[in-house]
């Protein structure tokens, strides 16, 4: 069986990101967490995490080596929220220390939508369905 995963590569901040996302979204579940040991360049960083979130499967790692690139906002996690209050709360928490690309508003395609890059560099689009 072929499976596809969204793969998120952090540079030393994967554990903090996972903890933040678990605190923001009740259904964000870390199903497997393997940490790098003392024999690696970055002990305690995430070697591999498998995550379940809103019916999606994600793989999360910390890169074992530094890179000159990071996430791009053109690739984001688009999350449809159940209600405006949950959306507003998630948006506020995720945008702390990050960058708001589109503030929460009615943009026509959604009665409430916001786009941000969190403090870990990951782009999120939060939306209420029509």
UniProtKB/TrEMBL annotation:
- Keyword annotations of the record: Methyltransferase, Transferase, Ubiquinone
Q: Which GO terms describe its biological process?
A: methylation
Q: Where is the PhnB-like domain?
A: 5-126
Pfam families in the cross-refs: 3-dmu-9_3-mt (PF06983)
Q: Does the keyword Transferase apply?
A: yes
**InterPro entries, A to Z:** 3_dmu_93_MTrfase (IPR009725), Glyas_Bleomycin-R_OHBP_Dase (IPR029068), PhnB-like (IPR028973)
Note whether Coiled coil occurs among the keywords. no
Tell me which SUPFAM superfamilies the record gives.
Glyoxalase/Bleomycin resistance protein/Dihydroxybiphenyl dioxygenase
Q: Please name the GO terms that the record assigns under molecular function.
A: methyltransferase activity
Q: Which domain of life is it from?
A: Bacteria
Its protein name is: Glyoxalase superfamily enzyme, possibly 3-demethylubiquinone-9 3-methyltransferase
Give the species this sequence originates from: Stappia indica
